[in-house]
Amino acid sequence: MAEKILVTRSSMPAFDEYTEEIKDIWESHWLTNMGPKHQKLQSMLKEYMGVENVDLFTNGHMAIELSLQALGLTGEVITTPFTFASTTHAIVRNGLEPVFCDIKADDYTIDTDKIESLVTEKTSAIMPVHVYGNVCDTEKIREIADKYNLKVIYDAAHTFGEEYKGRGIGSFGDVSCFSFHATKVFNSIEGGCVCFGDSDFGKRLYALKNFGITSPEDVDYIGANAKMNEFCAAMGICNLRHLDGEIENRKKVVERYISNLENTEGIKLNRVQKDVKSNYAYFPIMIDEKVFGAGRNEVFAKLAENDIIARKYFYPLTNTFGAFGGKYDTSKTPTALYVSQRVLTLPLYADLSLENVDRICEVIVNCKK
Ligand SMILES: *Cc1c(COP(=O)(O)O)cnc(C)c1O
Hints:
The chain has about 375 residues and is of the alpha/beta class.
C-alpha cells in the first residue's frame, strides 16, 4: 500500500537545531513580548526580504487586520473574492466594506482593467492578493492608487521569499502582509509579518499588536494582542536557514509536474511569470471538463480514493460565504467564479519525492475520457 500524500507537509529543522536555538530561552525566562528571538528573526527577515521595515505578528491574519487598522482606512476597500477567508474577513472586521473586483484568467490576480470602475467617493484602499506566488500587476495598481489617492495593502501570504524585477516582493504597495503559518513556504509554526515604508505607520502598528500601549502609562489606540512569541520566532530562525534549499526542491517538484502534465489536453498549468523569482508555493491546475472529459470534483475524488489529498483552493469564493448571508453578487466576478469551480491545487512540499509526483500525475491522467 502506497503512503498517503497530503497537500502539504510542514517544513521543520532538525530536532537538535531547534533545541539548540531555544536553549537561551531557558536561561533568560523571556518567553514573549519582543524578546531576543523576535529581534533576531526580525533582522534576519529584513535582510532576506530586502525591505526597509518589517514587524512580526502571531499570524498572517492579525498582520493584515492590524495593518488595515493602522492605516486608518474608512468606507470601501477594493479586493478580490479569489482568496483565503482571511483577506475578506480582515476588511469586514475593521468595519470596512469589501468591494469585489474580478481576477485575470491567466494568473488569478486582480484584473487591473476592472478596478477603476469600482472606485467611488468612499473608496480608501485597494487590497490585492498575490495568488499562488503569482505577482499582481504592481505598476498598474500603483498608477490607479496614485490617481485616486488610495492606499495599497498586498495580501502577500503566498509570496514569501519572492522578488519581482530584482526587488523584494514585500517592498511593493504601502504595506505587504505575509503569513508564516505551518502550511506556508516559510513557517514559524504560526506567524506573520508586515513590510512597510512609513515609520509613523510602523509605530501605530507596533502599538496595535500590544493592546495599543504606547508607553508604560499611555494606551493611545484600541489594539489587540498579536505578538509573536519566542518559540515561534526560534522556529522561524531555524527554518529560514534552510529556506533556499527548500525552494530549490519545490522547484524540482513543480518542474516534474509540468513535464508530466503539459501535454494533457484540458489541463491548464500555472507558469512562473516573467521577471518573477518564484517561491514555488503552490501548483494549481485548471481542469476544463469539456475537453478533459472529467471535471475538477471527479479528479479530486479519484485522487482521494488513491490516498492523495489535493485541495480545492480557492473554492468557494469568499463572496459566497454563508457568513455574508448572500449579500454579494458572484455574477459580478465571473472569472473568479469560473476559476474557483475548475481549479485544483496539487500536493507540493520540499521533500515530496518525484516518484510520488509521477504517481499523482498518473492518477490524474487516467481520469481523462
Ligand atoms: C494563509 C493566508 C492568510 C492568513 O495567514 P495565517 O497566518 O494563516 O493567519 C491570509 N491570506 C492568504 C491568501 C493566505 O493564504
